[in-house]
Structure formats: C-alpha cells, structure tokens
Amino acid sequence: APPHHKEGHSDPHHKEDYAHPDQHGHPDQHAHPEHSHHHDLVRCSGIEFDAITLDEHGVTYFIKDDHLWKGYRGSSEFTNQTFHELHGSIDAAFRMHHKVKPEDHDRVFIFKGDHVWSFYNHTLKDGFPKLINSEFPGIPNELDAAVECPSGECKTDSVLFFKGSHVYHYDLLTHSVKEKDWPAVMNCTSAYRWLERYFCFQGTKFQRFHPVTGHVSEGYPKDVRDYFMKCPDRGHGDKTREAHFGRCSGKPFDAFTADDEGKIYAFRGDYFLRLDTKRDGYHYWSITSNWKELHDHINAVFTWDHKMYFIQGDQVYIYKSDVHYTLVEGYPKPVEEELGVKGPVDAAFLCGDSHLVHIIQGKRMLDVDMSETPRKVVKEWPLPFDHVDAAMCGAEGIQVFIGDIYYEYRSPMLLATSRMQPFPHKTRKELLGCDN
User: Fold this and answer.
1) What is the DSSP secondary structure assignment for residue 287, as one 8-state letter?
2) Which of 31, 156, 192, 420 has the fewest CB atoms nearer than 10 Å to its CB?
3) Where are the transmembrane segments (predicted)?
4) pLDDT value of residue 309
C-alpha cells in the first residue's frame, strides 16, 4: 500500500493525473500531456510495492503507484492498461480462493481508499466498485495489504487483511472477522501467497509468516530483489543444487504421493515439489520446511485417513494433514510395529478409498490392511521389476517410476500379474512438462 493514506471517503470514479487508456486499452496521450511519455520505473533500484497478487492465469502482478509489472522480469506498464477502470495508486490486492462461490473464485480484488474492485480476466464485475464494508463487513478502509488463505491452509477459505499493526482474519463462509495482534508481522506494504507460502513485504524486505499463528520463519527478513525479480548480480539460486534437485534435472525421485486435498508431492533427496501447481509455477523446497522432523531423503510416502505416512529407513512418521502438517504424538515408530513390515522399503501407494496400502520391496509387493489392528501383510505379489524408485496411485491409475521413466497400470493386480510391460513414459517431459 502507499506509505501515506488520507483518511476519509474516496471517490472511486475520480480520475487522478495519470495516463488513461484509450478505446484500445492504451494510454491516452492527449488526456494528460504531462504524462504523455511512459516513464518505466526500475524495480531493481529498490521499490516498495503497493500490492502484489496472482491473477486467474497464475501471472504475478507487482503494482507501484500507477505502474504494474507482470512476472519477475520485464519493464512496467500503466496499471490501467490491464485494469482499465483503475487510476492512480492502490492500497491492496489479492486473488480470491472460494470454490463454494464460483462467481467470486479466482477473481482479483483490488482495494483503494474505502472501495473495492473485482476483476476477472481484466474485466470489471458488474456492480463494482463497491464500498469495502458492504463487500467485506467489518474490514477497515485504507488497507495496507491483503492476501487469500484457502481452506487447508486456514481452517476455512479466508482473507487476511493488514492495517498497521492489526491483522483482520475474514472468514468467507461466515463473514466473521477476528482481529489479531501479530507483533512479528506488521506494517506490511503488500502481502503475497505463492505455492502455500505467505509473505509480508516491508519496503524492499520481506518475511515469510504462518497464516494461522503469525509466526515468522527463521532467516528473515530477506531482500525482495534476490527472490522476486531478476536483477543483475543478485539472486539466491544454487545452480549445483538446481541441477540435482530441480524439476527437470532427470534424477530419480524417491517418492510420490497425493493427499486428500488433491495436492501431488514429489520427493527427491532433501527436497520436494508440488506437481499440481502448473498454473502458478513450480518450485522445490526443503522437506523440513513442511515436515520439520524429517531430515535426509525418504524411502516412501502414502496418504490414508487424512494423514501422511513417511517411511524413512526402518522408521515411519505420521503427519496430520489438517491445516499444515503436524507430527502425530509418539512418532516416529518402527515400520514393523506400525505396518507389520520390516524396513526399509522402496515405495508405497494407496488407491482412492481403499484401505490396502501396497508396499514395494525389491521384486515383491506386500499388501497391508490399514483397517486391521495389529496391521499385517495380507497378500504378497511378485513384481516384474528388479527395483522400483517410487510409485503413486491417482486418477490415471498406478504410476511406477524407475529412473527417468514411468509405467502405467490400471490396478495393483495388473501391476503384479501383467505379462507384458506397458509403454514407457518420460517423467520429465510427460509428467513434469520439461522441454529437455
């Protein structure tokens, strides 16, 4: 948000002295001669952004005064070339996540003074702009920042609004507001959610924070120019690490799984990445950033009964999936005690609503009934492979990963009994969308 607010009601239709779009959406060079030449702000010089948000296509917008940047590189344009009805600076923006109300889901909400605009595909929704208090009752005017918080990351689909030292948690289902005091997260000039990570920007610095507790992660603040834009002689990437752990490195994955929310995870070494985030982009993160008790690579992982089971050596860790992952008390435990199988294992998967987890060890697959106590192997199958790196069951059936290729099977029985090896698929190209 701009550093200086003027309290009081604003006129959403007031046109300030900025370039306005012509009928083709380009700045009108005649409306305001003093702004007839677009002056490109250099964001690498150190800019305090008023708002940062994704749009419905996964493009990140960085907004400062009447300028807008699309993505992490490139020059700016006037904001009203993209959002024609906006003129001058804004206070805050976010992309709505609210699937139970499709007419609002994925819309970009932009705040200025005491009004809010709602856009989809750069088109203003009928009836907007509106007073903030009529669209979001209990939320103050002259906001500093705002960010969406989907169910599973917050308890319900929500929006976090920031003003000074106050944080307003707005529940989209009940329209209730909880005001919070987060001393570590205050005076955000903009806020941004990307791939389940939440960031508060304060000038050219930013913090990563937890959207439920307000806890700020260690190692912050950091400089925006090293992470959110391509600047000469700046950055944080490790080319050696990217070559080994990055999405397109071609190295074998250790494990795959999909949780109850439909999030698909791939694990390689000490890192993981989400495979269902194509729209907003991919990024690999350290495993400990999500599951803090896990260190080093894992052997297998599967999801059952709203919990994720990680097998590491001869130990199993169980995490609750409800609003961020928390280790179940009393774990880790030996794999043999929990699943009736001696570790280590090569892979594990569970299909749909089944209560059978299929554990792969060498050339055999062991079926364990998760509904029984104590758990034990109820069936053993021979496999047509000498070794399997990972396996996963999803909408396309079972995928078995060996090196940089994978095979597809319709069912666990076909995996074990099929006499013909199916067509091999290239993991990098077909699953990860890599060009190489």
Assistant:
1) G
2) 420
3) none
4) 97
